[in-house]
Design goal:
Structural class of chain B: mainly beta
Number of strands of chain A: 12
Helix content of chain A: under 10%
Number of strands of chain B: 11
Shape of chain A: globular
Oligomer: heterodimer
Strand content of chain A: over 45%
Distance between the termini of chain B: 37 Å
Number of helices of chain A: 0
Order of helices and strands of chain A: EEEEEEEEEEEE
Order of helices and strands of chain B: EEEEEEEEEEE
Distance between the termini of chain A: 41 Å
Largest sheet of chain A: 6 strands, mixed
Strand content of chain B: over 45%
Mean pLDDT of chain A: 92
Shape of chain B: globular
Radius of gyration of chain B: 13 Å
Protein backbone atom coordinates (compact mmCIF):
# COMPACT_ATOMS: atom_id res chain seq x y z
CA UNK A 1 0.00 0.00 0.00
CA UNK A 2 1.03 3.55 -0.53
CA UNK A 3 1.94 5.75 2.41
CA UNK A 4 2.50 9.44 2.89
CA UNK A 5 4.78 10.99 5.50
CA UNK A 6 4.62 14.54 6.72
CA UNK A 7 7.56 15.05 9.01
CA UNK A 8 6.54 18.36 10.52
CA UNK A 9 3.60 17.96 12.86
CA UNK A 10 3.51 21.48 14.26
CA UNK A 11 5.20 24.52 12.79
CA UNK A 12 5.20 27.99 14.31
CA UNK A 13 6.44 30.93 12.26
CA UNK A 14 6.40 34.68 12.45
CA UNK A 15 4.78 36.64 9.66
CA UNK A 16 7.02 37.14 6.62
CA UNK A 17 9.07 34.03 7.43
CA UNK A 18 9.55 31.46 4.70
CA UNK A 19 7.76 28.14 4.86
CA UNK A 20 8.66 24.67 3.72
CA UNK A 21 6.58 21.64 4.69
CA UNK A 22 7.93 18.23 3.87
CA UNK A 23 6.00 15.41 2.20
CA UNK A 24 7.38 12.05 1.17
CA UNK A 25 5.46 9.14 -0.29
CA UNK A 26 6.13 5.52 -1.00
CA UNK A 27 4.95 4.25 -4.38
CA UNK A 28 7.03 3.23 -7.34
CA UNK A 29 4.67 4.05 -10.18
CA UNK A 30 3.02 7.13 -11.62
CA UNK A 31 1.33 9.24 -8.99
CA UNK A 32 -0.81 12.31 -8.67
CA UNK A 33 0.21 14.60 -5.81
CA UNK A 34 -1.86 17.10 -3.86
CA UNK A 35 -1.70 19.56 -1.04
CA UNK A 36 -4.92 20.38 0.77
CA UNK A 37 -5.46 23.07 3.38
CA UNK A 38 -8.00 23.24 6.19
CA UNK A 39 -8.47 26.67 7.73
CA UNK A 40 -9.93 26.78 11.24
CA UNK A 41 -13.60 25.82 11.12
CA UNK A 42 -13.60 25.32 7.36
CA UNK A 43 -13.61 22.32 5.08
CA UNK A 44 -10.63 20.88 3.26
CA UNK A 45 -9.72 22.81 0.14
CA UNK A 46 -7.34 22.01 -2.67
CA UNK A 47 -4.20 24.14 -2.51
CA UNK A 48 -2.39 22.73 -5.52
CA UNK A 49 -1.89 19.52 -7.45
CA UNK A 50 0.60 17.80 -9.71
CA UNK A 51 -0.40 15.37 -12.42
CA UNK A 52 2.41 15.66 -14.97
CA UNK A 53 4.69 18.17 -16.70
CA UNK A 54 6.59 20.93 -14.91
CA UNK A 55 7.56 19.57 -11.49
CA UNK A 56 7.25 23.03 -9.95
CA UNK A 57 3.58 23.63 -9.35
CA UNK A 58 2.03 26.91 -8.34
CA UNK A 59 -1.14 27.01 -6.32
CA UNK A 60 -3.43 29.51 -4.72
CA UNK A 61 -2.37 32.20 -2.23
CA UNK A 62 1.28 32.19 -3.27
CA UNK A 63 1.97 28.55 -2.43
CA UNK A 64 4.08 26.31 -4.62
CA UNK A 65 5.34 22.75 -4.45
CA UNK A 66 8.12 20.87 -6.16
CA UNK A 67 7.88 17.24 -7.20
CA UNK A 68 11.27 15.51 -6.96
CA UNK A 69 10.73 12.04 -8.33
CA UNK A 70 14.13 10.70 -7.25
CA UNK A 71 13.38 11.65 -3.65
CA UNK A 72 9.69 10.69 -3.70
CA UNK A 73 9.00 14.13 -2.31
CA UNK A 74 6.47 16.90 -2.88
CA UNK A 75 7.39 19.70 -0.49
CA UNK A 76 5.18 22.74 -0.06
CA UNK A 77 6.74 26.21 0.03
CA UNK A 78 5.78 29.81 0.48
CA UNK A 79 8.37 32.61 0.55
CA UNK A 80 6.55 34.83 3.03
CA UNK A 81 3.73 33.58 5.25
CA UNK A 82 0.85 35.63 6.57
CA UNK A 83 -1.26 35.29 9.69
CA UNK A 84 -4.11 34.10 7.46
CA UNK A 85 -2.05 31.05 6.47
CA UNK A 86 -2.63 29.58 9.92
CA UNK A 87 -4.22 26.23 9.09
CA UNK A 88 -3.66 22.51 8.85
CA UNK A 89 -1.97 21.26 5.69
CA UNK A 90 -2.34 17.77 4.27
CA UNK A 91 -0.30 16.11 1.59
CA UNK A 92 -2.06 13.42 -0.46
CA UNK A 93 -1.08 10.91 -3.10
CA UNK A 94 -2.96 8.66 -5.45
CA UNK A 95 -2.08 6.37 -8.28
CA UNK A 96 -4.32 7.54 -11.12
CA UNK A 97 -7.79 6.09 -10.72
CA UNK A 98 -7.07 4.64 -7.31
CA UNK A 99 -7.79 5.70 -3.78
CA UNK A 100 -6.12 8.60 -2.07
CA UNK A 101 -3.64 8.36 0.77
CA UNK A 102 -3.27 11.32 3.08
CA UNK A 103 -0.48 12.31 5.40
CA UNK A 104 -1.17 12.97 9.06
CA UNK A 105 -1.16 16.72 8.53
CA UNK A 106 0.98 19.67 9.60
CA UNK A 107 -0.47 22.33 11.83
CA UNK A 108 0.90 25.77 10.93
CA UNK A 109 0.59 28.70 13.29
CA UNK A 110 1.68 32.10 12.05
CA UNK A 111 2.33 34.70 14.71
CA UNK A 112 1.55 38.29 13.73
CA UNK B 1 -18.02 25.09 -8.33
CA UNK B 2 -18.36 21.61 -6.96
CA UNK B 3 -20.57 21.43 -3.95
CA UNK B 4 -20.50 18.60 -1.49
CA UNK B 5 -22.96 18.85 1.36
CA UNK B 6 -23.31 16.78 4.48
CA UNK B 7 -26.56 16.43 6.37
CA UNK B 8 -25.31 17.60 9.76
CA UNK B 9 -22.39 19.66 11.05
CA UNK B 10 -22.70 18.33 14.59
CA UNK B 11 -24.31 15.16 15.86
CA UNK B 12 -24.52 13.65 19.34
CA UNK B 13 -25.60 10.03 19.70
CA UNK B 14 -25.64 7.41 22.43
CA UNK B 15 -23.72 4.15 22.44
CA UNK B 16 -25.61 1.47 20.53
CA UNK B 17 -27.65 3.83 18.39
CA UNK B 18 -27.80 3.44 14.63
CA UNK B 19 -26.38 6.53 12.96
CA UNK B 20 -26.84 7.74 9.39
CA UNK B 21 -24.55 10.32 7.83
CA UNK B 22 -25.66 11.64 4.48
CA UNK B 23 -23.57 13.19 1.73
CA UNK B 24 -24.76 14.75 -1.51
CA UNK B 25 -22.71 16.11 -4.41
CA UNK B 26 -24.02 18.18 -7.27
CA UNK B 27 -21.38 17.67 -9.95
CA UNK B 28 -22.35 14.26 -11.30
CA UNK B 29 -19.14 12.74 -9.94
CA UNK B 30 -18.73 9.01 -10.24
CA UNK B 31 -16.56 8.56 -7.15
CA UNK B 32 -17.54 9.23 -3.58
CA UNK B 33 -15.60 8.67 -0.37
CA UNK B 34 -16.04 8.64 3.39
CA UNK B 35 -13.13 9.48 5.67
CA UNK B 36 -12.71 10.05 9.34
CA UNK B 37 -10.33 12.70 10.57
CA UNK B 38 -8.66 12.38 13.96
CA UNK B 39 -5.91 14.54 15.48
CA UNK B 40 -2.48 13.16 14.72
CA UNK B 41 -3.87 10.50 12.39
CA UNK B 42 -4.88 12.61 9.41
CA UNK B 43 -7.60 11.32 7.12
CA UNK B 44 -8.35 7.63 7.02
CA UNK B 45 -10.53 6.11 4.32
CA UNK B 46 -13.54 4.17 5.56
CA UNK B 47 -15.37 3.27 2.34
CA UNK B 48 -15.56 4.49 -1.20
CA UNK B 49 -17.79 3.97 -4.19
CA UNK B 50 -17.01 4.12 -7.89
CA UNK B 51 -20.57 3.85 -9.08
CA UNK B 52 -24.14 3.48 -7.97
CA UNK B 53 -24.65 0.38 -5.84
CA UNK B 54 -20.91 -0.27 -5.79
CA UNK B 55 -18.78 -0.02 -2.69
CA UNK B 56 -15.25 -0.81 -1.71
CA UNK B 57 -13.68 -1.06 1.73
CA UNK B 58 -11.07 1.45 2.65
CA UNK B 59 -8.50 1.16 5.38
CA UNK B 60 -10.83 1.18 8.40
CA UNK B 61 -14.26 -0.24 7.43
CA UNK B 62 -14.95 -2.10 10.67
CA UNK B 63 -18.10 -0.90 12.38
CA UNK B 64 -19.32 0.97 9.32
CA UNK B 65 -21.39 0.28 6.23
CA UNK B 66 -22.39 2.43 3.26
CA UNK B 67 -25.15 2.80 0.77
CA UNK B 68 -25.18 4.38 -2.67
CA UNK B 69 -28.59 4.09 -4.29
CA UNK B 70 -28.25 7.25 -6.37
CA UNK B 71 -25.21 8.72 -8.05
CA UNK B 72 -25.31 11.96 -6.10
CA UNK B 73 -25.82 10.48 -2.65
CA UNK B 74 -23.51 8.38 -0.47
CA UNK B 75 -24.54 7.41 3.03
CA UNK B 76 -22.37 6.21 5.89
CA UNK B 77 -24.05 4.01 8.48
CA UNK B 78 -22.87 3.18 11.96
CA UNK B 79 -24.91 0.11 12.82
CA UNK B 80 -24.25 0.37 16.56
CA UNK B 81 -22.35 3.47 17.51
CA UNK B 82 -19.48 3.18 19.96
CA UNK B 83 -17.47 5.82 21.79
CA UNK B 84 -14.38 5.10 19.67
CA UNK B 85 -16.35 6.29 16.64
CA UNK B 86 -16.41 9.82 18.02
CA UNK B 87 -14.67 11.72 15.25
CA UNK B 88 -14.98 14.18 12.37
CA UNK B 89 -16.44 12.48 9.30
CA UNK B 90 -15.63 13.88 5.88
CA UNK B 91 -17.29 13.08 2.61
CA UNK B 92 -15.57 13.69 -0.72
CA UNK B 93 -16.31 13.21 -4.40
CA UNK B 94 -14.25 13.14 -7.56
CA UNK B 95 -14.65 12.59 -11.25
CA UNK B 96 -13.04 9.91 -13.38
CA UNK B 97 -10.51 10.39 -16.12
CA UNK B 98 -6.98 11.48 -16.81
CA UNK B 99 -6.11 14.58 -14.91
CA UNK B 100 -9.36 14.75 -13.01
CA UNK B 101 -8.41 12.89 -9.84
CA UNK B 102 -9.14 15.75 -7.49
CA UNK B 103 -11.26 15.18 -4.44
CA UNK B 104 -13.73 17.81 -3.31
CA UNK B 105 -14.72 17.73 0.32
CA UNK B 106 -17.83 18.53 2.28
CA UNK B 107 -17.77 20.59 5.49
CA UNK B 108 -17.65 17.53 7.74
CA UNK B 109 -19.86 16.09 10.46
CA UNK B 110 -18.50 16.12 13.98
CA UNK B 111 -20.00 13.06 15.65
CA UNK B 112 -19.88 12.57 19.39
CA UNK B 113 -20.92 9.21 20.79
CA UNK B 114 -21.71 9.25 24.50
Amino acid sequence: AQSVSQHNHHVILSEAASLELGCNYSYGGTVNLFWYVQYPGQHLQLLLKYFSGDPLVKGIKGFEAEFIKSKFSFNLRKPSVQWSDTAEYFCAVNAPGNQFYFGTGTSLTVIP
Amino acid sequence: DVKVTQSSRYLVKRTGEKVFLECVQDMDHENMFWYRQDPGLGLRLIYFSYDVKMKEKGDIPEGYSVSREKKERFSLILESASTNQTSMYLCASSSVGQGTDTQYFGPGTRLTVL
